[in-house]
């Protein structure tokens, strides 16, 4: 297989145009830290953004940063931290789950719409993504969006690229809106709640005026070990006030409470962000389920009635990470039945290639949505050479 490492946009365009003309199927990547996600696709060559690096624009006063797609996320984070700023959506790092070691790239954050616990307050990566440059399947260079949120020219195209998994174009540059880094972070921990109680408590906290920036529940193997996590960030005086009010608001749920600060709190939220709560062996499948928060406990109850499973909740119960045995299609039929009955989307995040080839990795689309998906793919990539079949077979 030929591996391409273009050094600029023009070289990228030439490679993709040549592949389109010759019908060469291309696998797109950054540093390949997430290459084992999605459906395995049979391609003739690969193209990587790993040589397209560097921050191209940073205006702290305007709270905007642009970078070539192959720029390590860590470089972007360090640059922002130097000016007391951060990516508001707290992008997840999949390396612990997938066992990869290279540096994740900022282009992959946009391409996969990677968002962490703060999504409930700050929105997803796509909500902060305000500009992109990419090369489509024809080899054309496309620029969409701008440096400010008010520039709505092509904004829908920016959102379309976020979460497209490289099936519509090869990103060469991305622009994000950023926010000031919070002065203090603290976490209220409620102990021993059952899943339904925990989700109710999280819903009350999120519905309060106290600006919760993280809301997760980790069931214990025995109920006293369960931890319900509510994060607050901001100026210290404000955090103290909101913490006291939340304690009073949630007092009726009973049980013991703790407050986590400093590195301990950071470590807990990193384990939630990166789903390392479930890294209990690589011989299990891991699913990511989005559903209505109020349906979360019922969803996991149904799963547990059919297969052995472990799970925890993020986003106030709206995001469920589930670990299942690999046998029997990794529990695919059970999860799909639950999403059809209760609503939601289940994505297979980790499993061997043979499993990902045999079952739907992403939530199956109905005929109308699939027709639309195929039409969008054809308009961006008429020869179907970019990450073919990565999300859906034949697309």
TrEMBL record:
Keyword vocabulary terms for this entry: FAD, Flavoprotein
Organism ancestry: Bacteria, Pseudomonadati, Pseudomonadota, Alphaproteobacteria, Hyphomicrobiales
Gene3D superfamilies per record: 3.30.465.10, Vanillyl-alcohol Oxidase, Chain A, domain 4 (1.10.45.10)
InterPro entries, alphabetized: FAD-bd_PCMH (IPR016166), FAD-bd_PCMH-like_sf (IPR036318), FAD-bd_PCMH_sub2 (IPR016169), FAD-linked_Oxase-like_C (IPR016164), Oxid_FAD_bind_N (IPR006094), Vanillyl_alc_oxidase_C-sub2 (IPR016171)
Coiled-coil region: none
Signal sequence residues: none
This protein's record includes keyword rRNA processing: no
PROSITE patterns for this protein: FAD_PCMH
Pfam families hit by this protein: FAD_binding_4
Molecular-function annotations in GO: catalytic activity; FAD binding
Origin superkingdom: Bacteria
PANTHER family: D-LACTATE DEHYDROGENASE, GLYCOLATE OXIDASE SUBUNIT GLCE
Name used for this protein in its record: 2-hydroxy-acid oxidase
Domain FAD-binding PCMH-type: 1-181
């Amino acid at each position: 297989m030929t591996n391409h490492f273009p050094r600029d946009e023009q070289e990228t365009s030439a490679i993709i145009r040549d592949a389109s003309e010759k019908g060469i199927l291309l696998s797109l990547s950054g540093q390949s830290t997430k290459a084992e996600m999605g459906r395995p696709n049979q391609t003739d060559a690969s193209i990587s953004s790993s040589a397209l690096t560097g921050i191209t624009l940073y205006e702290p006063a305007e709270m905007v940063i642009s970078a070539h797609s192959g720029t390590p996320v860590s470089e972007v984070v360090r640059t922002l931290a130097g000016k007391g700023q951060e990516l508001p959506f707290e992008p997840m790092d999949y390396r612990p789950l997938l066992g990869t070691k290279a540096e994740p790239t900022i282009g992959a954050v946009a391409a996969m719409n990677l968002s962490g616990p703060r999504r409930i307050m700050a929105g997803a990566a796509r909500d902060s993504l305000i500009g992109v440059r990419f090369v489509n399947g024809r080899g054309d260079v496309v620029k969409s969006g701008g440096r400010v949120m008010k520039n709505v020219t092509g904004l829908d195209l920016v959102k379309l690229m976020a979460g497209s998994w490289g099936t519509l174009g090869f990103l060469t540059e991305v622009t994000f809106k950023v926010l000031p880094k919070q002065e203090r972070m603290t976490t209220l921990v409620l102990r021993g709640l059952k899943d339904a109680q925990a989700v109710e408590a999280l819903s009350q906290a999120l519905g309060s005026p106290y600006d919760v920036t993280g809301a997760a529940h980790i069931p214990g193997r025995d109920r006293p070990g369960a931890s319900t996590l509510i994060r607050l960030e901001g100026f210290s005086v404000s955090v103290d006030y909101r913490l006291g009010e939340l304690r009073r608001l949630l007092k009726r749920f009973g049980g013991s409470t703790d407050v986590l600060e400093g590195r301990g709190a950071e470590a807990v939220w990193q384990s939630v962000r990166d789903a390392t709560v479930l890294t209990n062996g690589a011989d299990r499948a891991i699913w990511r389920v989005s559903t209505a928060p109020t349906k979360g406990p019922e969803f996991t109850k149904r799963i547990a009635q059919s297969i052995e499973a472990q799970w925890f909740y993020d986003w106030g119960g709206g995001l469920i990470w589930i670990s299942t045995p690999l046998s029997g299609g990794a529990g695919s039929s059970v999860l799909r039945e639950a999403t059809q009955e209760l609503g939601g989307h289940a994505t297979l995040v980790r499993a061997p290639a043979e499993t990902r080839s045999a079952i739907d990795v992403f939530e199956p689309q109905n005929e109308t949505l699939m027709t639309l998906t195929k039409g969008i793919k054809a308009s961006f990539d008429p020869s179907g050479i970019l990450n073919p079949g990565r999300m859906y077979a034949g697309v």
